[in-house]
Structures are given as C-alpha cells and as structure tokens.
C-alpha cells in the first residue's frame, strides 16, 4: 500500500490491482453468476432492437441494394472499439465499463466525465426505448387483435397523451427483475434473445423462399457516398455490445468469457443483419422498404403475399425492445454502482443486497426515476445525446488501451488487441468521424451536460471521493504526474 501525507490530484489514477481488490469487499462485491452464453446473449439483447426492424428501410432509401454493404461497413466501424472493450474488460474485470477503464488510465476527473456521460447515455436510452416499447406494443395489439390502447395512457404529453403507462410498466418490471438477481435476469434475456432471433430467422427463410434478383439493379445508385451515408445511419443499430463490459464483475470467467461475448455478439448480429438486408432486397424494392414504418412486414406482404406477417414481426419487435431495456438498464445500474462505490456519488447506494447479490436500493431508485422520465418528459431532443455519448465513450476506451499499454506494459492481459495502437487508432478515427457528422445543437447540449457534471464533481465528488477521502486506506492509488508518483 502506498502511503503519503499528500492528497491525490484530480488526475490521479486508480491502480488496477486496487480496483480488482475492491470487488471482494464485504457489502460491495457483486455475485459472480454469468457465463459466456449469458454474456453473449446480453450483447445480442442490447444490439438487436427496433434498429433492424426499422432502420433497414431508411438505409435502403439512402444506399439502395448496397445497404447490404452499409451493414458490413457499420460492423467494421464497431469492431475496432469492440476489440478495445474486450482487452480492457478481460484485464480489468470490474463493474463500470468505460468509466472504470478511464479511472485506471486517465485519472479521476476524466473518469467522472465519462461516467457522467454514460449516466446520460444509458438513462435516456432506457427511457426512450421504453417509450418505443409502448408504441410497438400498440402496433402488435392492432396487428394481432385489432385493438389498441387509448392515446391518453399510451403516449407521453409530448406526443399528445397524458401518461405513458406501458413505458412505466416495462421499466418497473425490468427493475424488479434486476433486483431479483443477475442470474434470473440473464436467463430471461436469453429466452427473449432466442425469440427475436427466431422471428428474424422466420423472415429470412420465408424471404429466401421467394427470392428474386430483380431488385438488385442498380446495386449502388448513389455510389460509395450512399454506402457510407447509410452506414452512418445503420451504425446505431449496432450500439449495445459495450453493455457486455458492464457485467465484467459478475462474469464467472472474465478473462475468457468477456472477449468472447463482446466480439461474439457483434459477429452474431452482423450475420443476422446482413442476411436480413439481403433477404429484404430479394423480395421488395428499396422504395418499398423506405416507404414503410414496418419495412420487414411490408417486404413479406409485397414479396411473399403474407399479410399476417405484420403481427409476427410486431411481436418480435416488442420482445426485442424488452431485452434491450433489460440489458441497457442493467448496464446503467452497474456504472452507477461503480461510481457510488468510488465515492463520486453517494456511497451508501453501492450497498449490495446479501440475499440477491445485487445493488437493490440503487436499482430501485434508478428504476423509479427512469419510469418517470419515460412517462412524462419530452425525449425527442435529448435522445440525440445518446449517440454522441456512446461515440465519446468509444474514443476514450480506445485511448485507454493505448495508454495502459505504455503505462502498465506488464499488466496481465488475457486478451490483447492485435496490431495496437493501429486498430485502437482506427476505432478513434471512426468514432470521431461519426461524431463530426452530428448536428451542432447536439454538441451544444452535450457540452452543457458535461459542464453540469463537472460542477457536481467539484461540489460533491471531489471531496467525497474514496481515493481522496482516505488515500492511505485505499490501496494502489497514484498521484498525478505533476505531484509525483509515491510508489
């Protein structure tokens, strides 16, 4: 243990051994209960949501049949960051994902900034996805039974309703499932992932049974520019694999299972996305896909004459969104838990329920807050911040791999990004490119959100940080370079 009479600065980093040691603390340690299959299902559960059921139409309208290549290009853009997540998750198997990795590489202030960013990314995502869940539930009820919930209880005030009851119910149901235990949550998610993959498989089989090549000409009407523009839109249908890393601390064999789950979930989703896009173009024109709010159902209706397919695909969308809510909310609780355990947020919320092995109090608080957000708050503008927040996290994770390779060259790395720093630099380049394409007002809101976060850090996190409050009792801390390294 390093000791000193000084206090760590705002750029003090946490030693990896110290971070790992804390996971075994009484009352602050999460239960190790999930394996590679459940972790991979978490990744697939987070990635495959409404994206493939909706975004394929928008992508086809931009790139034409070449939207197939756009799906591949978007996957390539993600894979560099996925490799970096895999290295850090296997090397630092601690809850918190990019927040924790940044704490170990770039210091407390930067870690707080990315943690604050992730709170926004995950929290707003869950609320927005829950709102979408209510809309898809209504679409399923209408397609299957010809009924729908009244707007007053099915839409938020922003959309002409009074109270979005379905959004509240799905968030609270997921909240109590997460409180009950990570094993139970992982099993439920595995079932939902199986259902939505079966729905996509149904679409692919029926479409290929009625497949034709007429819609593939011209293949790329807008050329390379169309392919890349569609890839930028489709990229966000892949976001979610990073949620796997939030389960690092609860993985039974993190060194083996986390890289497999992160990369494996991305591969599985890419295969399904490419097959689905190819099958859709094989039975419907890009114009048909672009002109429908439910492009896959429209493709089956026009290309295969299966009008009742809308009900099956609507059910698939409901199940898909439910699993996304589950995994993203799980990630939100684990990031918040890590920040609370470090003292940057109220440490009492990091108490783990001994019966369930989960941060039950924290999960309940977040569940109630997110359900209120989903029920009443306008989300149309702030949801745009999710994209920039995710890409910002990707940048820092890639930077973290490069920094740790230089500052901790002897640290055990069960999985190593090949050709580092080239691949992490490519991950940074792709993320920065996509961030640069976002509208300026999104950047303004993002900077304002981070400024609020920095203010909270100075007022609360700085003085209550576990690292700073009791540096002599916190093993492995290091001072910032300008203060000298006491080790």
Automatic annotation (TrEMBL):
Localization terms from the record: Membrane
Top-rank taxon: Bacteria
Main location: membrane
Positions in coiled-coil regions: none
GO molecular function: amino acid transmembrane transporter activity
Membrane spanning residue stretches: 36-56, 63-86, 161-179, 191-211, 223-241, 262-285, 305-331, 360-379, 385-405, 417-436, 442-460
Xref: InterPro entries: AA/rel_permease1
GO cellular component: membrane
Record's keyword terms, sorted: Membrane, Transmembrane, Transmembrane helix
Record's bilayer topology term: Multi-pass membrane protein
Keyword Cell cycle: no
The protein, known as: Amino acid/polyamine/organocation transporter (APC superfamily)
Organism, scientific name: Paractinoplanes brasiliensis
Lineage: Bacteria, Bacillati, Actinomycetota, Actinomycetes, Micromonosporales
């Amino acid at each position: 243990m390093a000791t000193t009479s000084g206090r760590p600065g705002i750029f003090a980093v946490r030693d990896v051994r110290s971070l790992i040691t804390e996971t075994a603390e009484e009352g602050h340690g999460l239960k190790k209960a999930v394996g590679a299959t459940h972790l991979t299902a978490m990744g697939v559960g987070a990635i495959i949501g409404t994206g493939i059921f909706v975004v394929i139409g928008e992508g086809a309208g931009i790139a034409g049949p070449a939207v197939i290549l756009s799906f591949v290009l978007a996957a390539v853009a993600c894979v560099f960051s996925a490799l970096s997540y895999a290295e850090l998750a296997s090397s630092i198997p601690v809850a918190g994902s990019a927040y924790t990795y940044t704490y170990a590489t770039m210091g407390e202030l930067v870690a707080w900034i990315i943690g604050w960013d992730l709170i926004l990314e995950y929290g707003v995502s869950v609320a927005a996805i829950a709102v979408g869940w209510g809309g898809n539930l209504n679409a399923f009820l209408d397609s299957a039974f010809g009924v729908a919930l009244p707007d007053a209880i099915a839409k938020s005030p922003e959309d002409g309703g009074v109270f979005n009851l379905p959004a509240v119910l799905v968030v609270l149901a997921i909240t109590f499932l997460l409180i009950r235990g990570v094993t139970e949550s992982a099993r439920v998610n595995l079932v939902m992932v199986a259902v939505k993959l079966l729905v996509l498989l149904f679409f692919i089989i029926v479409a290929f049974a009625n497949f034709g090549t007429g819609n593939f000409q011209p293949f790329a009407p807008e050329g390379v520019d169309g392919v890349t523009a569609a890839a930028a839109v489709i990229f966000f249908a892949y976001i979610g694999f990073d949620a796997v890393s939030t389960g690092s601390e609860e993985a039974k064999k993190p060194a083996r299972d986390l890289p497999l789950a992160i990369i494996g979930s991305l591969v599985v989703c890419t295969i399904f996305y490419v097959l689905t896009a190819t099958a859709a173009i094989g039975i419907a024109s890009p114009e048909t896909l672009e002109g429908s709010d439910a492009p896959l159902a429209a493709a089956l209706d026009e290309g295969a004459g299966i009008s009742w397919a809308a009900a099956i695909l609507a059910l698939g969308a409901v199940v898909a969104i439910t699993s996304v809510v589950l995994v993203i909310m799980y990630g939100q609780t684990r990031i918040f838990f890590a920040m609370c355990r470090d003292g940057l947020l109220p440490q009492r919320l990091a108490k783990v329920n001994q019966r369930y092995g989960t941060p039950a109090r924290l999960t309940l608080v977040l569940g109630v807050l997110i359900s209120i957000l989903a029920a009443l708050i306008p989300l149309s503008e702030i949801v745009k911040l999710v994209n920039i927040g995710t890409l910002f996290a990707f940048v820092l994770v890639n930077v973290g791999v490069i920094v740790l390779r230089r500052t901790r060259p002897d640290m055990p790395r069960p999985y190593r990004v090949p050709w580092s720093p080239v691949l992490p630099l490519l991950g940074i380049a792709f993320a920065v490119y996509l961030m640069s394409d976002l509208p300026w007002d999104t950047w303004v809101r993002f900077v304002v959100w981070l400024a609020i976060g920095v203010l909270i850090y100075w007022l609360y996190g700085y003085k209550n940080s576990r690292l700073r409050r009791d540096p002599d009792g916190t093993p492995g801390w290091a001072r910032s370079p300008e203060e000298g390294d006491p080790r």
